[in-house]
Amino acid sequence: MLRQLLLKLLEWHIHRTDFLFLWHQAIQPYQSKHPMTPAENHTTANLYKTELSDRTLWFDGDSSFNAQNLLRLLQKYDIRYVDQITDDVKEFNRHVSNSQELITKQEVRPPSFEWLLPDEYKNLDVLEYVLNQLHSHIKLLTKDEADLRTLRVLKELKLYESHGLFDVLRTIIFVINTLSAAKTVWGVGRGSSVSSYVLYVIGVHDVDSFAYDLQIEDFLHD
User: Fold this and answer.
1) Residue 108: partners with Cβ closer than 8 Å, 6 or more residues away
2) What's the mean pLDDT in 48-53?
3) Are 92 and 175 in the same domain?
4) Which of 35, 90, 99, 132 has the fewest CB atoms within 10 Å, i.e. the most exposed one?
5) Confidence band (pLDDT; 50, 70, 90) for 72?
6) What is the C-alpha to C-alpha distance for residues 129 and 213, in angstroms, rounded to an integer?
7) Are residues 127 and 86 both part of a single domain?
8) Are residues 16 and 65 in the same domain?
9) What is the C-alpha separation between 84 and 164, in angstroms, rounded?
10) Confidence (pLDDT) at 25
């Protein structure tokens, strides 16, 4: 009966969602006689996921779904992955195109994104910008103290660069400049970020990390 219904629905080219709803109604008796089977394989991406109430959310944005809730969730999500390949999933895959087949997730894509910044900030020379900002902070200081603060900035920037955070700094600079242009007021600063003298220089917080002898390693560390 199930096979006949599936073939009939395919002939009628019923919309995928309607098809699955009717298919669910047809297989309920079948499910009671054929319980779900254990998972047939394990993914290699088990460390990169968060278990939610109705699905597994992977850090690259994909979701895997419990096969027992599959038909209900198809009404809500565009489903590509399931937690396990059951007999029902196999039966479903037999009647859809390759691009619609349900599969288990085997690997996680590396994160990839572009910063949505104006070109002038995407190409910003972070070292030059920060040193220019520093000048306004040290111009009234003695040469020795100015040199010490400059060395602190250079040390921190080297650490930021080693962590691949220059794009983050560019984004922060853009946000700070945008807020300043709009005359927006933000807090004095809190948390370990106040240990960064570079963030103080570019205006993220108002705590002079150098004067209070706060160490950058309290903020950036391995």
Assistant:
1) 45, 48, 58, 59, 60, 62
2) 82
3) no
4) 99
5) low
6) 23
7) no
8) yes
9) 37
10) 52
16-33 and 87-94 are packed helices; what angle lies between their axes, rounded to 10 degrees? 140
Identity of residue 113: F
pLDDT at 36 over 70: no
Q: Domain total for the chain?
A: 2
Describe the chain by its helix, strand, coil percentages, rounded to 5: 50, 5, 45
Q: How far apart are CA 206 and CA 203, in angstroms?
A: 7
Measured CA to CA, the distance from residue 131 to residue 202 in angstroms comes to 10
Distance CA 14, CA 76 (A): 18
Structural domain including 87 reads: 2-100
> Above 50 in pLDDT, residue 5?
no
Q: 63 - beta bridge partners?
A: 57
**Paired tokens of 56:** 């597994």
- 105 belongs to a structural domain: no
| Residue 9 and residue 92 share a domain | yes
Q: Is 110 exposed, middle or buried (0-12, 13-18, 19+ CB in 10 A)?
A: exposed
Beta bridge partners of 49: 58
Contact 87, 34 (CB under 8 A): yes
| 10 and 88 both lie in a single domain | yes
Torsion angle, CA of 12/17/91/106, rounded to 10 degrees? Answer: 140
